[in-house]
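Q: Here's a chain of 83 amino acids. Please give me its 3D structure as C-alpha cells.
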Amino acid sequence: MLDLGINSESISYEVALEVLGQSRQPFMQAIHDERRKVAPSQALIAYCEARLKAIDELQESLQPADRTTIERILSKSDPVFRA
C-alpha cells in the first residue's frame, strides 16, 4: 500500500470510501435513464439496485483495519472494483 505518512492507513480508508461512493454514480444514472423509457427494463433496474445495495453494505462495514479490501478498492487493476 502507498505510504502517505503518519495517517496513511486512515487516509487510504477515507479514499476507499470516496471511491466506493463515486462508484455508485453509473448505477444511479442507469436507473434514472431506464425509468424514463416508455418500457423500462425491470431486470436492468434490479441489477443496478443490487449493485448499489452491495456498495452500500461494503461502505457501511469497511473498517480502517481492512487493509486487503482497501488495497483492492484502490487498485486500478482489480476487476471487482472497476467493473
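Q: Can you summarize the key feature?
A: Residues 8-81 form one domain.
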